[in-house]
Amino acid sequence: MKLGTVIHKKEKLAVLVSGDGQAVLPLKEASSRGVEFPPTLIGCLEGTAFFEKAQSFAQWAESVEEAKALWIPISDVELLAPITRPAKNIICIGKNYAEHAIEMGSADDIPEHVMVFTKPPTAVIGPDKGIPSHSEITDQLDYEGELAVIIGKKGTGIAKEDAMDYVFGYTILNDVTARDLQSRHKQYFLGKGLDGSAPMGPWIVTKDEIPHHGNLDIQTKVNGEIRQDSNTKHLIFPIEQLIADLSKGMTLEPGDIIATGTPAGVGKGFKPPKFLKSGDTIEITIEGIGVLKNTVS
Fold first, then answer.
1. How far is CA 97 from each of CA 235, 247, 260, 271, 296, rounded to the nearest angstrom?
2. Tell me: the pLDDT tens digits for 67-103?
3. What are φ and ψ of residue 41, in 5° steps?
4. Which CATH class is domain 90-296?
5. Residue 50 is inside which H or E element, if any?
6. How far is Cα 39 from Cα 41, in angstroms, rounded to an integer?
7. What φ, ψ does residue 66 adopt, rounded to 5°?
8. Would you say 47 and 37 are in contact if contact means Cβ atoms under 8 Å apart?
């Protein structure tokens, strides 16, 4: 099941997305069947038994003749980030692929423990939205294609073997980074937290659709050139470990987003570096999810 957020006729809507990604169905249409959903996906995730209710609605919508007229062509809507305004900062994992850690320093930079930083909710933008160049404060804007995990259940002190019970689904995130700011301030927040620096989408795919989350191809192209080409099997700390470690003393809640780290091939890793410039288009593809595409404005 795919779920997203769109604007249609000036109204922001939480929607089901068809299997082929070519049409959407507003969740509010479920009211005709006696089921009421909150107006936002984050509100839906905070509700009781949302997955089961949405799945039942999706099965009806895809099999009943009367539902066909309710679907809206995706060309008639504006696709937004699935969670347009996270309730908290996005939890991001640093140097979670060994080759990326090496390209950013050396083998000595491969972490022994999970590295964590965050991006503010104001960083989030949707598919096909312009990434601000922020040229007044940086000339080292970089891309980082990542698998992002959407938490679906509240928990703390979560055991590694129970971690997947807390996952709702997955999306794609571009951890856009101003490398010069990151270096200058000796920490990640300013360089990672600029407005528009967290393109996300195109939708959330529920975990039942992606059983092999630890073996997904991930690829990033810039202007058609392949820059990153890896697989989530190379994560140093897999999703189960991330959830277990993050939840030690910190409560994870429905709608929380965990960006799992980026593979080798970022702009800074090239010699000379290949930083982004205005007009560059970044396409991140993750197996089983789709493509997140944005252009630097």
1. 5, 21, 9, 19, 25
2. 888 999 999 999 999 999 999 999 999 999 999 999 9
3. -65, -35
4. alpha beta
5. helix 50-63
6. 7
7. -65, -20
8. yes
pLDDT at 64 over 90: no
Which amino acid, residue 132? Answer: P
The one-letter code for the residue type at 56 is S
User: Using CA atoms, how far apart are residues 181 and 183, in angstroms rounded to an integer?
Assistant: 5
Residues in the chain: 297
107 dihedral zone (left: phi>0; alpha: psi -120 to 50; beta): alpha
In one letter, which amino acid is 68? K
Look up the pTM and report it.
Answer: 0.97
Contact between 204 and 82 (Cβ < 8 Å): yes
Residue extents of the structural domains in the chain = 2-80, 90-296
Bridge partners of residue 8, in order along the sequence = 11
Q: Specify the pLDDT at position 156.
A: 98
Residue type, 263: P
Cα 39 to chain centroid distance, Å, stands at 20
Closest CA to 81 of 126, 147, 148: 126
Q: How far apart are CA 119 and CA 107, in angstroms?
A: 26
Summarised one tens digit per residue, pLDDT across range 226-272 is 999 999 999 999 999 999 999 999 999 999 999 999 999 999 999 99
